[in-house]
Amino acid sequence: MGAFGQLRTDRGPVFPGCQKQLQPAPDRQPQRQHRRRPERPRQLYRHLYLPGHPRWRQRLGRYTTLGADFSYNTVQFDGVNDDSDGYSTSFFLDNQANPGKIYWAANINTNQATPDTSATSESEAMNFELGYRFSRQLDGRLRYGYVDNHLDDPTQSEAEAGNFWGAGLDWTPGPRTSLSASYNSRLLSDQGHGLSINHRQKHTNWSLRYNKNITSVRQELLQLTPIGTLICPSTPSFNIADCRLVDSSSPVLPGPDEQAITLVAPLPTLSEEQFIQQSLSANLVISKGKSLWTLGLFRTERDFQVQASTEEDTGANAGWRIQVSGRTSLSTQLTWSRLESDFEATDYQRSLSLSMVRQLSEDSSLNIALRSTERDSEDDDRAFREHRLTIGFSHLF
Question: Which residue of 99, 103, 125, 134 could cross-link 138, Cys pair, CB 3.0 to 4.6 Å?
Answer without folding.
Answer: 134
